[in-house]
Write the structure tokens for this entry.
Amino acid sequence: MSTAILSDRGLVKVSGETARDFLQGLFTCDMKSVGADDPAFGGLLTPQGKILFDFLVFELDNRFFLDCRRDQADELTKRLTFYKLRAAVEIENVSENHDVIAGWGDGEVTDGAQPDPRFGKLGWRMIAPAGEYSTNSDVENWHAHRIALGIPEGGLDYDFGDAFPHEADMDLLNGISFSKGCYVGQEVVSRMEHRGTARTRTIAVSLVGDVPAPGTEIRAGEKIVGTLGSAANGRAVALVRTDRVKSALGEGLSLTAGETLITHVAIDWADFGLSGDA
């Protein structure tokens, strides 16, 4: 089994007697389902329904830890504090005191690890005191594993403040509860779900040729159909308009990013009906 300290991930701790209810009214995931062995994937949205932050939520000793991008931990702490008002909660960026560790592949699961709630093949996550745990791989290999499974990551594969949850496939990765009560941006997310209006999606692709820079336009002929995200080992994550891709492939056009040929790779957690599946 491969294990890595995710140096690009930080932690925000939320504690207090009303912490669960406080977060329930803010996050896309159902905080009532989060337990010691049941983490969740979720996000905090703008009132217009766009993703400001995404994170994994863990409960440890009646406290909640938000596994987020490390460079967003301070901002997430400030945003939650803004919503705090009179709630009996404490919010703290504890990134310097803890490591976020990921494990994937075959082998024994480490004690204290919890399954990644997005997709079983991702593996597990664990929170440990900083410097306490040694690993046998690195964060680059973790991202290669994530990319091979087509799992997007905010800030790398879509821009915070610009993408809707459906565009980041949060609805397919257990990141949205459609049965809980209100949360920030809930009306927009529910409307997109019930009307089926999500045409932009994040997909897994393979690359034939040099690896283009993230953000490179994906074209079908002269038409722009999306942008390339993070890439590793001949695979990448791409944000595309699925209707335009289907139309282009139906016309026999190839997808390219610069001089690189792009082919959709079907992953068993998501089937967008695109041809060229591998």
Notes: Helices lie at 19-24, 73-84, 139-148, 186-195, 242-250.
